[in-house]
Amino acid sequence: MPIGTSFPSLGISLLKGGSTTPLERERASLLKGLRYRGISERVVYAMGAVRREDFVPQSLRDSAYRDQPLPIGKGQTISAPHMVAIMCEILRVEPQSRVLEIGTGSGYHAAVLAQLAGEGTIYTIDRFEGLVENARKLLPANVVPLVGDGSLGLPEYAPFDRILVTCSAPEIPSPLLEQLKEGGRMVLPLGKGLQELFLVRKNNVIEKEAHGAVAFVLLVGKYGFPDM
């Protein structure tokens, strides 16, 4: 159940050390580490409400709470938990937000966004149909997974309060800027070899704020990189 402005009892139990299995203890340790990094309680609890082990291949289940990206097939990865937390923190998803995510992947990041948005709706798009179908089985009812060119956004569902891009673009895709609501926020990595994470604000003018070096798979599409 999306948390909205409340916190799930599961997350509270984990943060208090009420875990029993090795995987749960690793999960609790990860959540504690996120708090030490300065991640807000709201984002930590949202991540505590989503079982990362459900979103990784079965063979990697025991590695689910290592703070690192893991392969999910099709040359794609599930982002490291700390990066998911940082991006959510910068994005500042509010209850009832309408959010667009570019790059569904395993669906893990969309599931965390769904917790933060409460009764809001998360639209998530990926070019790999197999990944979208797998994610669809795991995601809550307030997430709408779709197949397509994420660089084009989803104009039929715009405007969006928040846009999250989980793959690196050569520059900010113009369709995404158009679909971002005035006063909205977008978080995305830019670059190919050297990538940097940016917060983009739309307040009459477009404002960009750098948030450090990152490494993501590339955004492939009309306003992204060509498919190799």
- Segments where pLDDT lies below 50 for 5+ residues? 3-15
Number of domains: 1
Listing every helix as H and every strand as E from the N terminus to the C terminus, the arrangement reads HHHEEHEHEHEEHEEE
Instruction: Please state the average pLDDT score.
Output: 92
Strand content: 25-35%
Separation of the first and last Cα atoms: 39 Å
Structural class estimated from helices and strands: alpha/beta
Radius of gyration: 16 Å
Please count the beta strands (DSSP E, at least 2 residues each).
9
Note the overall shape.
Answer: globular
User: Regarding CATH, which class?
Assistant: Alpha Beta
Largest beta sheet: what is the strand line-up?
5-4-3-6-7-8-9
**Mind summarizing the main beta sheet?**
7 strands, mixed
Helicity, as a percent range = 25-40%
Instruction: State the fourth-level CATH superfamily.
Output: Vaccinia Virus protein VP39
**CATH architecture field:** 3-Layer(aba) Sandwich
Give me the number of helical elements. 7
Q: Could you tell me the CATH topology label.
A: Rossmann fold
Q: Can you tell me about this structure?
A:
This protein has a single domain (9-214), classed as 3-Layer(aba) Sandwich (Rossmann fold), CATH 3.40.50.150. The N and C termini lie far apart (39 Å). It has helices at residues 9-15, 22-36, 41-48, 81-91, 108-117, 129-136, 174-179, and strands at 70-73, 76-78, 98-102, 121-126, 143-147, 160-165, 180-190, 195-203, 205-214. α1 packs across α3, α2 runs antiparallel to α3 (41-48) and α3 packs across α5. The chain contains 7 helices and 9 strands. A hairpin with a 2-residue loop joins β1 (70-73) and β2. The strands form 2 sheets. A 7-stranded mixed β-sheet has the order 5-4-3-6-7-8-9. Strands 1-2 form a two-stranded antiparallel sheet. The relative contact order is 0.12. It has 228 residues and is of the alpha/beta class. It is globular, with a radius of gyration of 16 Å.
